[in-house]
Amino acid sequence: MKPRPNMRLSSQAMAFVLAGGRGSRLKELTDRRAKPAVYFGGKTRIIDFALSNALNSGIRKMAIATQYKAHSLIRHMQRGWGFFRAERNEYLDILPASQRVSESQWYLGTADAVTQNIDIVDDYKVKFVVILAGDHIYKMDYEVMLKQHVETGANVTIGCLTVPRAEASAFGVMEVDASGRITRFLEKPADPPGIPGDEGNALVSMGIYVFDWSFLRDLLIRDSEDENSSHDFGNDLIPEIVRNGKAMAHRFAESCVTSGLEHEPYWRDVGTIDAFWQANIDLTEFTPKLDIYDNAWPIWTYAEIVPPAKFIHDEDGRRGMAVSSLVSGDCIVSGSEVRNSLLFTGCRAHSFSALDHVVALPYVQIGRKAQLTRCVIDRGVVIPEGLVVGEDPEEDARWFRRTEGGVVLITQSMLEARASVRG
Fold first, then answer.
1. b/e per residue 270-303 (b: at least 16 CB within 10 A)
2. Are 406 and 423 in contact (CB under 8 A)?
3. What is its EC number (predicted)?
4. What does 367-405 look like in DSSP terms, one character per residue?
5. In 3D, which of 412, 334, 421, 340 has the Cα closest to residue 369?
6. Annotation: binding site for alpha-D-glucose 1-phosphate
């Protein structure tokens, strides 16, 4: 199937989103939900960024492969992404690991997640497949990457970040020639190769791949028959193409979407409690590094029907107020002081309490006189009256999860354990 010159390439493509991972470094935040389903930015989920990028790029065919504790993610897809219409040639399929190949085999790796659904991808009748990770925060126009893929005649085009060489050892690193062709793929090398003409920086993989479907389909079938393969894109398929085919690097800066407020391309892996907290708190800055208010490139999500946020009481020591903060719908700040914080839908902050650099997930209740600093509070947690967090590191670590960066994660089970000991 050849690309049709009178059509945008994105209309001939599908997005295959890998959303099965737990994200174990997020600790208790992923005890009940997969990492792509973790809340972010006041009202969205992490996966909404990859899906919104695809939709805004013009891709109207998507598949989401799920595996680990997928109910929260699937429910979000059904509620927030159910607007695709088959009569307009639009499709969104949710593909849980359902033992379609054998009764004992779940998804063995990222490539196997696609292999097990080859027949479903065939039904889309697409020319290109864009493989995406469902757990990163960024804005990107995939049409730009698709155009490069076609123009260079690549077997695979890989989205790459430009990072200082000293930081590149934590990633899969691409060694490229002057044309951008990948000559070596190195997994977390001790001495990462620099970029020709820019030796102080290196190119690292974003986990975004563009393939012609016919090429990828044959490659997946061969890989599935290899007993020595781990059936993973980064470990197996990409190194194979680098050795025996044509792999091209696509620089994120060339397709990153900005509103004019962002000073540099923004991409974050919010895979740790510290990174998750920081990326959310960054949104409260006067000029945030990521502009989520850009209506030209909206982040689509499940829009709950809730009343507006409300601020009540106006007396010294009991004033409902929020400064440098994001406060979502159905929040009530009742005689509480909120600073540099982010309150998700339905939070309640009661009188005489104070929140500073707090990320409170949906439907958190903050009891009277609670004093909270540098916290992440899981969904539905009820903070007891007078709780103080963020002043005594040892006391915080005794009851809650305190990170190396000094951020405290609070869940309801942690509070219940604390209450049972304290009587």
1. bbbbbbbbbbbbbbbeeebebbbebeebebbbbe
2. no
3. 2.7.7.27
4. -TT-EEEEEEE-TT-EEPTT-EESS-HHHHHHHSEE-TT
5. 334
6. 107, 172, 187-188, 205
Q: Are strands 318-319 and 314-315 parallel, antiparallel or unpaired?
A: antiparallel
What's the CA gap between 71 and 115, in Å, rounded? 23
Residue of 13, 301, 282, 261 lying closest to 141 (CA atoms):
13
Q: What is the pLDDT along the chain (423 residues), one digit of tens a residue?
A: 565 666 799 999 999 999 988 889 999 999 999 999 999 999 999 999 999 999 999 999 999 999 888 899 999 999 999 999 988 989 999 998 765 555 445 678 899 999 999 999 999 999 999 999 999 999 999 999 999 999 999 999 999 999 999 999 989 999 999 999 999 999 889 999 999 999 999 999 999 999 999 999 999 999 999 988 899 998 899 999 999 999 999 999 999 999 988 889 999 999 999 999 999 999 999 999 999 999 999 999 998 999 999 999 999 989 999 999 999 999 999 999 999 999 999 999 999 999 999 999 999 999 999 999 999 999 999 999 999 999 999 999 999 999 999 999 999 999 999 999 986
The full set of domain ranges for the chain reads 9-284, 310-422
Distance, CA of 6 to CA of 72 (rounded, Å): 40
Binding-site residue numbers are 107, 172, 187-188, 205
3-state DSSP assignment of residue 32: coil
Give the right CATH number for 310-422 from 3.60.9.10, 2.160.10.10, 3.30.40.10, 3.40.830.10: 2.160.10.10
Structure tokens at 321: 């107020």
Tokens describing residue 23: 């994200």
Query: Cα 224–69–377 angle (5° rounding)?
Result: 135
Superfamily of chain region 9-284: Spore Coat Polysaccharide Biosynthesis Protein SpsA; Chain A (3.90.550.10)
d(CA 205, CA 216): 18
Backbone phi and psi for residue 232, each to the nearest 5 degrees, phi listed first: -125, 140
For 260-413, where are the E strands, in sequence order? Answer: 267-268, 310-312, 314-315, 318-319, 321-323, 326-327, 332-334, 337-339, 342-343, 348-349, 354-360, 365-366, 371-377, 382-383, 388-389, 401-402, 408-410
Using the structure block, give the residue that is written with the tokens 């001790």. 190
Helix (H/G/I), strand (E/B), else coil: 14: strand
